[in-house]
Amino acid sequence: VLVAFGIFAMTSFLEEIQQQLKQDSLIDPLTGLFNRRGLQEAVAASLAYVKRHQHTGALLMIDIDHFKSINDQWGHDIGDHVLFEVAQSLKRQLRQSDILARVGGEEFLIFLPMIDKAEAQLTAERLLASIIQVKLADLPQSYLLTISIGISMTTADYDLELQRAQADHALYQAKHLGRNRIEF
Known about the structure:
Blueprint: H1 2-26, H2 36-52, E1 57-64, H3 67-74, H4 76-92, E2 99-104, E3 107-113, H5 117-132, E4 147-153, H6 160-176, E5 182-183
Parallel strand pairs: 4-5
Antiparallel strand pairs: 1-3, 1-4, 2-3
């Protein structure tokens, strides 16, 4: 009986550890958002539905403007706090079906399923406005936190990598044209 109980306890413990490791491999520890791997899994499931019903969607690539200067001027702890607050602000503006991930450094990616270009524009405008409202005790009150957004609408083949490249190109244009703006 003791051996059976021990095996049962060990098996349960190992299953719990395995679940935690899988969860940790999908989540960015700083922001609590999906990481690249988590994003790919979540978008794949969402895209299957969107494709089946021939709906449009949008991919938003977001970059915090002048983030390097925050780290350089006030330190990486403050930079981490900015990343966390930006993530929370973005998350509050999204629908439950939207997928938000931190994909590197100060870059975030959002997949908006079942949305057209006009709705994507409105969502991006809400995101811009929400970030400007973020006030951090660690930064001077006069510091204006902004983001730039590049948007790609889904294509007929729903190729995530192609969309990501297009959204990245649009983000580059937004940065080039002055930051704190949206480009398709």
